[in-house]
Design a protein that fits this description.
13 helices, alpha+beta, 4-stranded antiparallel β-sheet, 16 strands, binds heme C
Length: 404
């Protein structure tokens, strides 16, 4: 290599190295200095990171970039009619997406897609207005592969005033810091005064999606220790899953999968770390009470009503789910989890006669965990007066007599 080119490359290299170092060293996580951020895990946990990035948790919320938004924006497929004069059109303008309200063909206002919530079954969207985000009136549903009213929104009157409350972020994101809101008398920092009682959020503190440290707890020290001692093969400075009791393992998921009874809340879900008790966050759990538990959002409550759960001491969510799996397990692979405890099942003559052997052996799920309509969530498609059902898998594992 000629000397002149070295002279050129050398400073460039330093600059590059410096910028690499800076990126890591300068990273400040909005949650505080105990947190390292998901990027920093990749270097040592490549496979897990790669898989988790494609998991529904990572996409439970995101910025509304066109690649994160499902639903059809092409003409003919992108219109919701409220009445003969009023329509909402889903439009792509430049690099941004909008829900545009028209009256008698005249544009009244364009509302930008800023935030996306959801990925697996549905997506709902929000736009920012000052320090608050508001839900857009039309959502996307996978079951119909179509737009429909956002849950409990009107199909005849468009509404742009429903605020995205802090609770949405506490289950769908990894952080959302409170904005400092001026009250009429004095200036107060709401985040320290009233936990989560104000829904104004500081945009730049949002960590979209449910990331590694949302489930595993702050891991900056873990990163630093393993960087310093690369030969250490045993996890340091992090809560290990196997050290938890079965209840603690359950609680790690239940904090977001036990429904949302905000009246019984004791502290913000954001404070939760693995090892914590759910009962320190919510006064009473829906577990055990005979009230009907909706299939939406409360897998923990339904599972707790199953004999499988009640009569075995080791069952938790990871009995059937592996939390950073990228590929969707098949019903046959889920059924393997059933078979691991139920080597045989006493099916009646009738069940055996009416069911093909292959199904009886490889799909326990559709009969014992059938899909049910949510009572909490319904929606309407454009021009359809009927409510469309929102189907989810029940976690009350049981005998459903109509399934034979
Ligand atoms: C410099 C390397 C390094 C970095 C960076 C790193 N880890 Fe680890 N981590 C390890 C080693 C080594 C282990 C122990 C072996 C194993 O389980 O893979 C481990 C284990 C773990 C475990 C398993 C604990 C258990 O249940 O046994 C978790 C969880 C974990 N790390 C989370 C994280 C998270 C989250 C990040 C990013 C914020 C991260 N790690 C970054 C090296 C690292
Ligand atoms: C911080 C809140 C939070 C925690 C903690 C959490 N989840 Fe979730 N989970 C969600 C949300 C929100 C969704 C919906 C994601 C979507 O589709 O947008 C979800 C979706 C899921 C799904 C369906 C998506 C899929 O990939 O099939 C499963 C299964 C699941 N969670 C299991 C678990 C398990 C197991 C744990 C504990 C190890 C856990 N969750 C912990 C909030 C959470
Ligand atoms: C207690 C935790 C919790 C709260 C609070 C919560 N969600 Fe969810 N949400 C979930 C879970 C878990 C799922 C996925 C499984 C289900 O439907 O049971 C989900 C599903 C969704 C979905 C469909 C995503 C999918 O693919 O399954 C959307 C959209 C959504 N939530 C938006 C919101 C909005 C907007 C708010 C605030 C008004 C909110 N959620 C509040 C836990 C929560
Ligand atoms: C939804 C909650 C959740 C999220 C998000 C999550 N994990 Fe985990 N992780 C778990 C649970 C639960 C276990 C224990 C699984 C088991 O032992 O069955 C685990 C196990 C691990 C392990 C040890 C076992 C293994 O699979 O290698 C590592 C390392 C790890 N996680 C790292 C990460 C990293 C890195 C990320 C982010 C890219 C991440 N996790 C995101 C819940 C989560
Ligand atoms: C950790 C072990 C375990 C797993 C995994 C498990 N079960 Fe069970 N299941 C049990 C136990 C224990 C009972 C109670 C048996 C009794 O009462 O004698 C039970 C009871 C049942 C019953 C009878 C319920 C009733 O109300 O009478 C059905 C049906 C059942 N299981 C189906 C399943 C299916 C389907 C799966 C997979 C989705 C599954 N089980 C997974 C342990 C398990
Ligand atoms: C005995 C096995 C089993 C256990 C234990 C279990 N699940 Fe599931 N879960 C399933 C099956 C099967 C499905 C349906 C998958 C499908 O239809 O593709 C499912 C689906 C889900 C979904 C998506 C719901 C939907 O219809 O989109 C969520 C969320 C979920 N589980 C969370 C949890 C949580 C949280 C726990 C622990 C409280 C848990 N599960 C325990 C078997 C189980
Ligand atoms: C076609 C629907 C269907 C399928 C598929 C099915 N079951 Fe059942 N199962 C039933 C019904 C219905 C009963 C109640 C007894 C009866 O009428 O046969 C039952 C009863 C049971 C019981 C309680 C009886 C006992 O043994 O104590 C268990 C456990 C069970 N099933 C497990 C399973 C497992 C595990 C699978 C998958 C390998 C499976 N079932 C597949 C419909 C089904």
């Amino acid at each position: 290599m000629k000397k002149s080119s070295l002279v050129f490359i050398f400073p460039l290299l330093i600059l590059l190295l410096a910028s690499c170092r800076n990126k890591d060293a300068d990273y400040i996580d909005p949650r505080g200095t105990d947190y390292a951020g998901a990027e920093s895990c990749i270097q040592c946990h490549q496979d897990v990171s790669h898989d988790a990035a494609q998991n529904a948790h990572f996409k439970a919320s995101s910025l509304a970039l066109p690649e994160n938004v499902l639903g059809n924006f092409r003409s003919g497929k992108n219109t919701f009619h409220y009445d003969k004069d009023t329509k909402l059109v889903m439009e792509k303008r430049g690099d941004s997406l909008y829900q545009v309200l028209y009256k008698n063909g005249k544009e009244l206002r364009a509302y930008k897609y800023d935030i996306v919530f959801g990925i697996k079954n549905a997506q709902t969207f929000a736009y920012w207005h000052e320090k608050r985000a508001y839900e857009l009136p039309v959502s996307y549903y996978k079951s119909t592969n179509d737009w429909g009213t956002s849950p409990s929104f009107s199909a005849t009157v468009p509404n742009f005033n429903r605020e995205i409350v802090k609770d949405c972020y506490s289950c769908h994101s990894s952080n959302a810091g409170s904005a400092i809101v001026k009250t009429s008398s004095t200036q107060r920092d709401v985040s320290t005064m009233f936990m989560d009682t104000d829904d104004a959020v500081r945009k730049e503190t949002i960590v979209y999606g449910i990331d590694c440290e949302r489930c595993h707890g702050p891991a900056k020290k873990h990163v630093q220790t393993h960087q310093k001692f690369p030969d250490l093969k045993i996890a340091q400075d992090i809560v290990t899953f196997k050290s938890l009791t079965n209840q603690q393992k359950l609680d790690m998921c239940s904090i977001c999968h036990s429904g949302n009874d905000s009246r019984s809340k004791m502290q913000s879900r954001f404070n939760f770390k693995p090892g914590d008790k759910f009962s320190d966050y919510y006064r009473k759990n829906s577990i055990g009470n005979n009230g009907e538990i909706d299939v939406h959002g409360n897998q923990n409550g339904l599972l707790a009503q199953s004999q499988c759960f009640v009569k075995s001491e080791t069952m938790n969510c990871t009995t059937c789910h592996s939390p950073h799996q990228k590929t969707k397990p098949t019903l046959a692979s889920y059924s393997q989890a059933c078979i691991s405890c139920h080597k045989t099942a006493n099916h009646s003559e009738a069940t055996i006669r009416n069911t093909p052997q292959a199904i009886l052996k490889s799909n326990c799920i559709d009969c014992h965990m059938p899909k049910q309509t949510s009572k909490a969530i319904t929606f309407q498609r454009s021009g359809d007066e009927k409510l469309s059902g929102y189907f989810l898998r029940t976690h009350r594992i049981a005998i459903y007599p109509d399934k034979k």
